[in-house]
């Protein structure tokens, strides 16, 4: 690391590790630049204008291109932000040594962390789950349509603060008072890749308990399942033999459709067991104003403050169950956490991230006389 000119990390824990085991003549050579979320996209503010994730206004686009060497190649809307900047920096001839945990980690987290979408969909491939019946059945479509109508009616001040605003929904809504809904379903979302480190095992055990306790609960697993792995075999067996199979969904979304999964959810679970940086799926859920229950692992404790904008608990089934059950029974608490989560996500907004990268690259090029 002493031979590197600057290190940029998306993970506060990597930064802590570097400062714990290394000394630096220049303390400012180690920079933390966490992953970002396109809050405008996930709140729906850019939906009517057709602006998707990664889209930027002309000012931001020109600022970044000018810094990295004046390249005018158009960035594909499906590429990750970190990849764009890295490619642009290379085109500009900047002689910057990046650590693997710097921009490489940004790419990895932008793929692995986008557990609520198929990573391959970022390359333009629709990844509808082969085992699901066309992604959503008629019941799911009806639920999503109901949620879309609710969010369209919400005022800007309360936009995306959760789908639990019972009074505004009336008889067809999900809830009419705090506590369990009188009609409709409660929906629990696991927006991760279905893998061991992302917490698929505790999530399945959690689903067993909650489906037994909540007759109106729908549990959705929204993420890629890597076939022919032990986890895939276990999940398929669990799902195919489950007594409540009709209330369990497994869907894989593109980035353009994953927002629907967050909209429909009442509670989002991020039950990571290990290996977690700045979780994009957590940021996405927070941007949508959702109540999140997250494991106290990796960078999740940089996003969730327990009891303020969500619940942060040990990655055990008992701890996760207690937190999720509390939220499923308390609509007012879901709204409270969701509103604070939305405000927290604004600090990780994509425009701020771009501006920080622009400033960082500008300063670095100046140091190198470029």
UniProtKB/TrEMBL annotation:
One Pfam family linked to the record: Glycos_transf_1
A single MF term (Gene Ontology): glycosyltransferase activity
This protein's UniProt keywords: Transferase
Residue span of region Disordered: 108-139
Family annotation (Gene3D superfamilies): Glycogen Phosphorylase B (3.40.50.2000)
Glycosyl transferase family domain location: 183-341
InterPro entries from the UniProt entry: Glyco_trans_1
Biased composition regions of type Basic and acidic residues, renumbered to the chain: 111-139
Name this protein carries in UniProt: Glycosyltransferase
